Amino acid sequence: MSLLLDQTVEKSVDHQDPQSQYGRGLVPDSSRASRPRSFAVADFPVPTGREEEWRFTPVDRLGNVLSNEPSDDRDGDVAVDYDVQHADQAGVSIATLAPGQAPRGTALIPEDRGAAVASEQTGDALHLSIAANAELAEPVRLNVHGNGAGRRSNAHYVLQAGANSRGMVIVNHTGSSDHTGNLEAIVGDGAHLTVVTLQQWENDAIHLGQHEAKVGRDATYKHIAITLGGGIVRMNSNVSYDSSGGEATLLGVYFADAGQHLEHRSFVDHNVPNSTSLVTYKGALQGDTAHTVWVGDVLIRKEASDIETYELNRNLILTDGARADSVPNLEIETGEIKGAGHASSTGRFDDEQLFYLMSRGMDEKNARRLVVRGFFADIIAKIGVPEVQEALMEAIDDELTLTMGTSAA
Fold it and tell me: Are 268 and 279 in contact (CB under 8 A)?
């Protein structure tokens, strides 16, 4: 019998897809694990918004991005440009994978219509491989730039970290497009892989994404989602384990302005013993109709003894008219665990902090800026890449300038 905390997860019928690991009787009919997964778009009806997994999302604005359409590439004018940097260093190789060509599909099986569209409509997936025992001197960067609002684009990336390798991949989204994008990470035994995904789209962009990792024995996986741009961004960041001893850390930072909908969902599937996970997402909101959503699911299966997990979400509302939804879900099927917990909160400025700073001569605008910086500081420090951390703080300052004025020298 499973123990459910925060009874907000859906009860759905398992879809018997021969390509789906969840359709071959490998998991019990538990709330989160039984969610349908399939490579076929036809297996996912267009959502109405009444479905549990879509109830927070403005599905009435997703008609184009959920249509099963190829990328809107024209002669000499592609919908999205892709540029890979620092892939020429030792231990890195770049290739492509056709649908069904291993290791494509090893970690990721689509769990919603957007991911299925991205899978079906991407002919050749980018395959970025880090050789066993390689240690990358600098991150590999994948720049994704949309060339027009409303133009459909699809993508699928396969990241493979060989045994005992160490590396980082940074995926940066800019420009504008109606984009569906999948990313799967295969983390070999003893490997350390960090994936940083930046959503810095223009405010008329729409982005649906599923990022999925399979973590090997004694391997370490870190996924960092930073979302500042886009009209609608909805990302699923999922992890499962290939063997015991794996560690997964999922971090997220988001800042929503007026009219933006930024939605982050995570699923940690503790399917083996002796694995650990830490999920930490923080967001700030300002402006009328700014909306953020965080849904964190953790499943501890019967066989997953001696695991440890914790998930945390914090939201800071800066102005009236903004809304943050936060839903942590923890499902436990065994009592033989080291620890499991979650926490969630949404609130406004700490008036006492603001008063303390202003009483020492700081003006209100910069006092508020300092409070917001302090709110994000601990999670940004965990990124571990100074240039990314500095750029992120600058971007947050730019967001704050919209309502707080220019920072003082």
Answer: yes
Computed over every residue of the chain, the mean pLDDT equals 89
Q: Kindly list the distances between the CA atom of residue 368 and the CA atoms of 45, 223, 316, 348, 396, in Å, as whole numbers in the listed order.
A: 45, 29, 12, 11, 12
Q: Kindly give the pairing relationship between strand 140-161 and strand 3-5.
A: unpaired
- How many CB atoms lie under 10 A from the CB of residue 60? 8
| CB neighbours of residue 335 within 10 Å | 8
The candidate with the shortest Cα–Cα distance to 180, out of 203, 200, 204, 151, is 151
Statement: residue 45 has pLDDT above 90: yes
Tell me the longest C-alpha to C-alpha distance in the chain: 66
Looking at residue 22, its pLDDT comes to 32
Number of Cβ within 10 Å of residue 54's Cβ equals 18
Residues in CB range of 373: below 8 A, 6 or more apart: 393, 396, 397
Taking the chain, what is the end-to-end CA distance rounded to the nearest angstrom?
A: 59
Residue 380 near residue 393 (C-beta atoms within 8 A) = yes
219-268: pLDDT as tens digits: 999 999 999 999 999 999 999 999 999 999 999 999 999 999 999 999 99
User: Which of 374-391 are b and which e, b meaning 16 or more Cβ less than 10 Å from the residue's Cβ?
Assistant: ebbeebbeebebeebeee
CA distance 155 to 141: 16
Q: Calculate the alpha carbon distances from 390 to 129, 188, 329, 404 in Å.
A: 28, 30, 33, 20
Of the candidates 255, 173, 239, 253, the one whose C-alpha atom is nearest the C-alpha of residue 207 is 173
Query: Looking at the predicted structure, is the pLDDT value of residue 31 above 70?
Result: no
The answer to whether 317 touches 348, Cβ cutoff 8 Å, is yes
CA distance 139 to 133: 16
State how far the Cα of 316 lies from the Cα of 320, in Å rounded to an integer: 12
Residues recorded for the chain:
409
| For the chain, the helix, strand and coil percentages under 3-state DSSP, each to the nearest 5 | 15, 40, 40
